[in-house]
Amino acid sequence: MVQRMNVRDGFQLDRVSLKNRFVMAPIKTALNRPGGQVTANAEAFYERIARGGTALIVLEPTAVSSNGVEHPKQLRIHDDEHVAELRKLVNAVHRGGSLAAIHLNHAGRAANPKVIGGPPLAPSAMACPTTGAEATALSAQEIERIIDDFGAGARRAVKAGSDAIELQCGHGYLVSQFLSERTNGRPDRWGEGLVFAGEVLDRVIAGAGTVPVIVRISGKEFVEGGLDPENQAEFLASLEGRGVSALHVGFGNSCDNPAWYFGHMALPEQPQIDCLKSLRSKTSLPMIVAGRMGYPDRIREVLDGGLTDLIGLARPLVADPDFPDKMMRGDEDSILLCGACLQACLAKVKSGAPIACMANPWVTAEVGQSTDSSKTVMVVGSGPAGIAAAITASQRGHEVSLYEQKKGLGGQFAFAVKPESKNTMSRMLQGMLGRLQRSDVVVHEGTKVSPELIKREAPDAVVVATGAHQRRPEIDGLSRQEVITSFEFFENTDKIKGNRILVLGAGMVGLEVAEMLLAQGKTVVACRRSETIGDDMDAISRKMMLNKIGDHPNLMLMPGTTLTAFTNRGVDAVREGEKLVLESFDTVILCSGMEPEKSLADHLQDYPGKIVVIGDADTPSNIDHAFGQGVDVGNRL
Questions:
Q1: What is the CA radius of gyration of the chain?
Q2: How far apart are CA 140 and CA 162, in angstroms?
């Protein structure tokens, strides 16, 4: 009988005692300076997460070699001068009450050529699809130097005060590139993947001394011919009795399957469970499991099932640093859950901007200091911008009222969670609404705000967050068609007239509408003037969406297409300079062209109080931008 484990139970990691079962998995933050110098923001980020109850925080990936760097702002440990920088983060974690582990990595073919000043290095010459860069094969001398770098990195991690050391042996990075036959075709001794992995591991263990060493792997890459529990069995066996303290399991491959590596919301969860069962039978090492573990029920499932000893969380702790404390004290309803959307965390970091979160827009922009002079604040609109502004202003001590003309809060966020591929984002919406409910903000649903109401209430400040409306394109004959907006579609998805549907717009919203229509058995044509489909989506979401619906027999995608007229014989269009006529449609759904809803703001120009226009009412953008703007305004009132 499997003994049930509780997240509150302590755990002995060799000589290190963990206070509970929560571990933070490594995540890139882009909070540091180019070159990896630690900033005060990075220290505050890790200290805040530590204060939320996590027992062990594995710091973000740290490059052991100058030619193994993946991100310009990545931490480094390839020089003695980096010890003092890393010690800042270790001390920040300790101040917050947690233990710290430094994560040693060499990106190999996933390295950034612009950062390392040349082509990436790998066991064999091949490209990394994620970066598009072609790697060159390492020489024997370069391999020996990198092995030395791993050992030196371990010694420096000890000097920096790290309580544990994690070695990255998975996820498509250098050690796993040697382990996998897909990426290692060398004819010399290094062609046997266990040779490189074993020498690196021995150097790291020697350099760590008495500090516990954790080995990170990808339990399954979900790539044809990629690493999985079966072909990693020999490697796992080699870890036994070697001085390894624990195995940290994630999924995916940074080059060949980033969706599984980052745990995208559209992926199924059961394959991970099946993989864990297989891995558990192949090793006696204590296990940490990360990847879509950020839900209390799922945590209980894997602990009660004996599939892991410790729970690894990364993005869920960005969404709510207090997740561990809340779960341990039974306050699960207040947890701000990660929706695995990757739209602010991954997208921001890849662009070079600091990490952000749609579930927690306060993650790197905490609520400002309490105000010395409380004001009455009226927020009009309950979309992301309005909610963030209302909560932030209220927590600073202002008297805040939030008005929404409809019955139901969330604005466009409530529409964004409708597609099946994004249903985990509904957890984010509920978390945000729960935070609003627990605040001191007074909410008025079903109340349309007029200039007269504002004058009667006389607030000191009015925050106009009234969103945007769909622009109706000027196409001859469109007014004679059955036309609805994407908003109207999402409000009532089951009442679309007819079977043949035209979607005007093939960006993110247009593709999501098409996905839902196809699920209803409709025939869909999605067109846009731009030559690129889904160019407003992050790369992973776009690829997954097009893989799912791009070849659907009932869908025609028509980029680079301009519609010129709706006539009795069909729809006149021009594509690549060629005129064509499309068969008539039963319904047209508008999915592009947003215009700010500024009618209220335009009538308040003479209002004596402060007027601030935010979110899509200011400039149509994405949800992350709206949340960030709301927090900023709430902090400045």
A1: 26
A2: 31
90 and 200 co-located in one domain: yes
Whether the CB-CB separation of 403 and 449 falls below 8 Å is answered with: yes
At 542, which CATH number? Answer: 3.50.50.60
353-391: buried (b, 16+ CB within 10 Å) or exposed (e) per residue?
Answer: ebbbbbbbbbbbbeebeeeeeebebbbbbbbbbbbbbbb
- Residue 605 within any structural domain of the chain: yes
Q: Which domain holds residue 407?
A: 376-468+596-636
Q: Are residues 439 and 458 in the same domain?
A: yes
| Three state DSSP letters for 559-583 | CCEEEEEEECCEEEEEECCEEEEEC
pLDDT in tens, 189-234: 999 989 999 999 999 999 999 999 999 999 999 999 999 999 999 9
Contact of 337 with 319, CB cutoff 8 Å: yes
Mean of per-residue pLDDT scores for the chain: 95
The strand pairing partners of 376, in sequence order, are 399
pLDDT, tens digit, for every residue of 93-150? 999 999 999 999 999 999 999 999 999 999 999 999 999 999 999 999 999 999 999 9
358 belongs to a structural domain: no
CB 86 within 8 A of CB 61: no
Is 131 found in the same domain as 238?
Answer: yes
